[in-house]
Specification:
By secondary structure, the protein is an alpha+beta fold. The protein has two domains: 111 residues, Copper Amine Oxidase, Chain A, domain 1; 205 residues, 3-Layer(aba) Sandwich (Aminopeptidase), CATH 3.40.630. Helices cover 30% and strands 25% of the residues. The protein contains nine helices and 18 strands. The strands form four sheets. The chain has a six-stranded mixed sheet, with helices on one face. Strands 5-6-7-8-9 form a five-stranded antiparallel sheet, with helices on one face. Strand 13, helix 5 and strand 14 form a beta-alpha-beta unit. Helix 7 packs across helix 9. The longest helix has 21 residues. The protein is elongated, with a radius of gyration of 22 Å. It starts with a helix and ends with a helix. The structure holds zinc ion. The site of zinc ion has 6 residues, from loops.
Length: 349
């Protein structure tokens, strides 16, 4: 499951008219993919029938009363396209968004799945948006090509002793939530929190510019995610992500670097990944592996670039690390130590 997050990025590159899909499963069950997703007002709408059948629940549209009845372990839950509430017996539970009829099917949002539908099943529910169709800014693929051609041959001058600037990309954002883990915590929030901590620590300790792809909760095109790499003084680029598995078992950190066209390992990115892995391990964090990935999101240039999967939101300890400020500072500090070591290594080359 650990490549899911990368596959998300991968599909953004190669799908010209991106079609969204989601995965859903009850704990211990095989995930079901649902493809017929509609985007409205920056949200995705998923057919309720498909969600219920994936979760082995029954439901029926009552065309006379204009309500949908979901039969669950917790009783009959009633929702309606006209209402901001879900009724179970005498209880009215507020919904973040009303369900909507789109293309003849009643559809619900991700918030409904994570907050409301999950409360109707007695086992843990895993949900993931596997290829959010990020809107492109003015977009065809040539913009990406332009960005990558800019990054090619962008290497630190041989006489630069330390890092001149750092580029950081907090993965996902806005309606592109990334993975969703325990308690509904979202990858996009973990990546932003660690990024902001890392920005603070780098600025405090090295006093060099830190360029961010985003500093708040909004969706970006792939091109915008990589924009910091195009800054002329950036000597290292980190893409921060977290993953989730359908099982609570997988844990730990993975570092991804690109392999070049001849499948040779990219030397500078490997040096950077090695320095980061060492610093993370020195802080007692579990680094599983450094993996080469021939994926476009890591760029085709030779700027030292590492994509870091900082842990599993579906794993209890990892999720605490990613969700709590203390853990976020710990991750950011270790990443800073790795960046600093990488910068110092450059001395005298
Ligand atoms: Zn991700």
């Amino acid at each position: 499951m650990r490549n899911i997050c990368l596959l998300v990025l991968f599909s953004l590159v190669f799908t010209s008219s991106a079609v969204a899909s989601i995965e859903i499963a009850l704990r211990g069950e095989e995930p079901v993919v649902i493809d017929e997703i509609y985007h409205r007002d920056g949200l995705i709408y998923i057919p309720l029938d498909d969600l219920l059948s994936a979760l082995a629940l029954d439901g029926d549209w009552d065309s006379i009363n204009h309500v949908y009845r979901i039969q669950s372990d917790r009783g009959t839950a009633i929702i309606s396209p006209g209402s901001h509430f879900m009724r179970i017996g005498e209880r009215f539970i507020p919904l973040q968004e009303k369900p909507r009829f789109i293309d003849n099917r009643l559809r619900v949002t991700e918030n409904f799945v994570v907050k409301n539908l999950s409360s109707l099943v007695s086992t843990q529910l895993f949900y993931r948006n596997i290829d959010p169709a990020t809107p492109r800014k003015g977009g065809d693929d040539s913009a990406l090509d332009r960005l990558f051609s800019f990054m090619v041959k962008k290497k630190k001058p041989a006489n630069a002793a330390t890092l001149r600037a750092v580029g950081l990309d907090p993965g996902h954002g806005g309606f592109d939530t990334g993975s969703i883990g325990l308690n509904g915590f979202k990858e996009k929030d973990a990546t932003l929190a660690v990024t902001l901590q890392l920005q603070r620590i780098v600025k405090m300790n090295l006093g060099v510019p830190v360029y961010l792809s985003r500093n708040d909760d909004y969706a970006l095109s792939l091109e915008d995610h990589l924009q910091p790499a195009a800054e002329p003084d950036v000597d290292a680029m980190l893409l921060l992500h977290a993953q989730a598995a359908f099982s609570p078992v997988p844990s730990g950190i993975y570092l991804y670097i690109r392999s070049d066209e001849e499948s040779k390992v990219d030397g500078d990115s490997l040096r950077l990944a090695t320095a980061l892995a060492k610093a993370l391990r020195e802080d007692g964090l579990t680094v599983r592996d450094i993996v080469t990935a021939p994926l476009l999101p890591l760029g085709r240039g030779d700027l030292p670039t590492v994509l870091i999967e900082m842990g599993y939101l579906s794993h209890e300890e990892d999720s605490l690390l990613l969700m709590k400020e203390e853990g976020q500072v710990r991750l950011a500090t270790a990443l800073f130590n790795g960046l600093k070591a990488f910068g110092l290594e450059g001395k005298g080359i």
